[in-house]
Amino acid sequence: AREALFQAQKMEAVGQLTAGIAHDFNNMLAGVIGSLDLLRTRIKAQRYGDAERYIETAIASAERAAALTARLLAFGRRQPLDVKPVDLNAVVASLQELLGRTMGERIGIVLALDPALPYAETDAHQLENAIVNLAINARDAMPDGGTLTLATSVTAKVTGSWRGTADGPFVTLDVSDTGHGMTPEILSKAFDPFFTTKPLGQGTGLGLSMIYGFAKQSRGHLLIASDVGSGTKVSLHLPISPCSPAAAGETPARRALPHR
Ligand code: ADP
C-alpha cells in the first residue's frame, strides 16, 4: 500500500510538471501558428506588406519554445560533479557578504560554525549555489524579517524521511529561518521538480529538487524540518573527505571562522 501511495504521489508530481510545461509550450506554439495563419491570409490576398513581421514573430515564438526544451534537457542531464575536499566553513564565510546584501535589512544572519569541522567531499561551486538558493528560499519565507542561521556540525547518523538511517559521519550544514514554514502537504512536494507556491515568474520550483539531486550525487542527504508559523530548517549532509585536516590529525581550530 505504501508503494502504491508513493507511485500515486509520483504520478501527481509528473502530472503537475507536464501540465505546467504543456501550458507554456502551447502558448509558444499558438504564437507560431497565429503568425503563420495571418501570413497565409496575406499571401492569398497578395498583400505582402506585413509578411516579414509575421515571419519574425513566428521565428521568435519558435525560438522561445526551443529555449524551453533546451532548459528541460539541461535539467534532465546531470551536471558532473567536480568533487574535491571542501572547507564548508570557509565556503559559508565567503558567502557572508553576498548573503547580507541578498537578505536585506530586516533579516539578521547568524553563523554558527563548528571550528573543528572536517572537510566535505563535494563540488564547491554547486555547494555555493545550493547555499545561496536555500538562503533565498529562507528570505522568501520571511517577508516581515527574521533570522537566517547557517550552522555547521558533524552528524554521526542521519535519520531520514525514508524511515531508515544512514551511517555517517557527515559534514552537515543547517540553513534555518524563522519564516512562515511549510504545511505537511507542501513539505511532501517541496523536492518535486517544478513544484512552487510562489507567484508566476518568481519561483521555478527547481531549487530544492536540484539541491536534492546534488546531495544524492555527492552521496549525501537533504532533509527538511518545518513547522507552520515557526520556521524551517534544511539540513544538507555531505560525506567527509578522506583528506580532511582533522582526519589527517592536524589541528583545524578556528581555521575558518568568519572575520568580524
Ligand atoms: P521555488 O523557490 O522556486 O518555489 P524550490 O524548489 O526551492 O522552488 O521550493 C519549492 C517550494 O518549497 C517553495 O515554493 C516553497 O513553497 C517551499 N519552500 C522552500 N523553502 C522554504 C522555506 N525556507 N520556508 C518555507 N517554504 C519553503
From TrEMBL:
Its EC number is 2.7.13.3. It catalyses: ATP + protein L-histidine = ADP + protein N-phospho-L-histidine. It comes from the Bacteria. Residues 20-242 form the Histidine kinase domain. It is an enzyme of class 2 (transferase). One of its GO terms (molecular function) is phosphorelay sensor kinase activity. Keywords: Phosphoprotein. The keyword Phosphoprotein applies. This is histidine kinase. It comes from Aquabacter spiritensis. The lineage of its organism: Bacteria, Pseudomonadati, Pseudomonadota, Alphaproteobacteria, Hyphomicrobiales.
